[in-house]
């Protein structure tokens, strides 16, 4: 596994700004191997969401655990990058759904629009999943997260800014004209790529992370990756994303040890944190 530099702030405030839903532990204790494997224990159903069937966003692709009896499950809305569609992040759908999340990869109404508009679409997508989607019986309205790449990463930050009740936000190689996200109280994991020349970390991801005051926040710099690292399967990315969602969407504290002290992978080369003991 490639090396990754991680800076984590998970101190006394391992909670969101609003009361968290009760914790859920799904299956055996997570390990580095289990969070980086291609698939988890759940069979997955997949459905296309047509633009004409929804309002507030442009449709997309819906992934969910096939077994409703194991739910309800947390909901994750995922935004693509500039002029891209949901298909560019297709690998994340089964990765997350097979671990017990309902995932909607969102097609945006206007692929040229800015992150603030896409943030509204991410939130509209979550609302549709929990209220009107064919898997609404499996979706937990109290457990929702946003994730995005590039301008979609900016959208994830913007969505967290306006909906503090979200359980987690994960911007990947985020791009946004704004630089101040001090108002975000949602647990936020910022993923950056060392060789990113489109949204250089020093100008985007690092600045966004530095502005955060959320009680739970983390920044990871992935070496050897360019701006589009999230558009193809990546075990380090998957492990960090799944651990963050498991910790803050499901509230499963067993994931803390994977996020703290460099235990997610022996390839973590440097880390600063204020994490509590697992």
UniProtKB/TrEMBL annotation:
* Secretion signal span: none
Give the enzyme's main class according to its UniProt record, as a single word. hydrolase
Q: Which GO terms describe its molecular function?
A: triacylglycerol lipase activity
- Reply yes or no: does the keyword Hydrolase apply: yes
In short, the EC number is 3.1.1.3
**Entries under Gene3D superfamilies matching the protein:** alpha/beta hydrolase
PET hydrolase/cutinase-like domain segment(s):
23-276
Under the heading Pfam families, the entry gives: PETase
- Keyword annotations of the record: Hydrolase
Presence of keyword tRNA-binding: no
Q: Which PANTHER family match?
A: DIENELACTONE HYDROLASE DOMAIN-CONTAINING PROTEIN-RELATED, POLYKETIDE TRANSFERASE AF380
Family indicated by similarity: Belongs to the AB hydrolase superfamily.
Record protein name field:
Triacylglycerol lipase
In its UniProt entry, the species of origin is given as Actinokineospora spheciospongiae
